[in-house]
Amino acid sequence: MMNRKTAGGYLTVYMTLTLAVLLSLCLTMIEGARRSAMRMQAEVITDTAMRSVLAEYNRELMRQYNIFAVDSSYGTTDSGMGQTSVHFKDYMEKNYDPDVSMPWLDYRDYIGAYPESASVDAVSYLTDDNGAVFRACAIEAIKDDLGLTMAMEVIGWATGAEITAADGMDVQGELGSQSSAVSLAAAGERSRRESEREALEREYEEACKAAEEAGGEAPPAPELTSLPEQYSSPVSGIAGSVSSGILGYVIDDAEKISRRQIDPGGIISGRMKAGDVSIGTLEYVSSDDGVIDEALDKALFGEYLMRYMGRYGDTDESDALLYQIEYLIAGRENDTENLNGVALRLLGIRAGMDLIYLETDAAKRSDAELLAEGICAVCFIEEMAPVLTHAILLAWALAEGRYDTKVLLSGGKIPLMKDQSTWHSDMLSALSGMDPGPFTGTDTGLSYTDYLRIFMFLTDTDKLTARAMDIIEADIRLSGGNENFRLDACMEMIEFSAVIKSSFGNSVSIKRRLKY
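Above: the chain sequence. Below: its structure as tokens.
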């Protein structure tokens, strides 16, 4: 009888149990891969959509002023986060739609993700914190193009003792005050002596009448008080020519001066005063780098403005204002007043610097003292000689300052502090208000643009920034499609958020900030 062998079932059971475990592991790994792929896809697509939004920066703002910012109005009158959110979500949806993103590829989507929501939650506008965001962008823009040498020179000029002292002087005001004091003293002395003469003459007439009635001899005539000469101010010539208008003297063809103007109510500084500006919801954090770095940043900001804005002698006919740098300093509504304001300040600085030199030049001071003493002697006001001496020096410095101003406005240079070799006018011609002669200047020294840099550095930072934004708004609005351009609609930093869901039940939330 043969023995039959029976096979056991233990191997099949083992394989079944093993395959169940392996299958669970594989499915878990597949699901994990799906979730990881979904998150990676969400990160990549969100980043792409964010960068696509920032790629919609205003082209004219970048072309004219090298500033990158998203104009949230997109050429319309409606600005804010709404339209930008729509653009962001549209980019998200298109990147998640395979028929749009990869129409050439036929495949099954094993992730099944789609953007449930996508929005802009917070922004930072260029005008935030009184324009500090714009100023920071401008400084970064100029750092890429410029070394620090010029900025450090501007700081040195603007903080120097000579400029500080000269900028604090009011040469014209002092001249008027001291000239008036001498004139009043001369008029007072003449009036006093006239009164004395009249009194003596009356007494003599009464004595003669009394002697005649008494039958006696007339008394001897009294010695009358001599009258001073009529006072003629030696500084009236220069004082009159300055008060008649600075531009007509320092510019050869004053008729060619631009008279363009802007509406102060429609630009950013006017809207800021009225409280009609958009304010970002992202807090601007300024860097506290100390006084030295703050001064350097302001000087660099000035260099940015010098590079991208026009000024007298370097204008662009397509600009809203031709004398843009002058507007930053003077803040008037039209070119003529801005140029006049800068010219007067330039005259004040130069006259102050020239007065500092005159006070130290013994020969020139001696000439002024001799003239003052002679005039005061014939007017019987010797005690006013020191005052008149100073008035003569003021007038002389003012005349030399007018010469300096014309040289600078014509493109020449003037030394910061003069000496005997660079002094131009003589005392008598200066006091008479005569034209001091050819306007040549020197090969070394500071130019008109250098003084503009100094004036900008000395201007209040917030005022300078607001006026710079005025210029940018006014210029951009002249370009096609930007008639409604507003800087307080331009986003420099944007916070995005998105919620991505999958048809397999997974979800990813993303929040990012991005700036230029």
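The chain has a mean pLDDT of 86.
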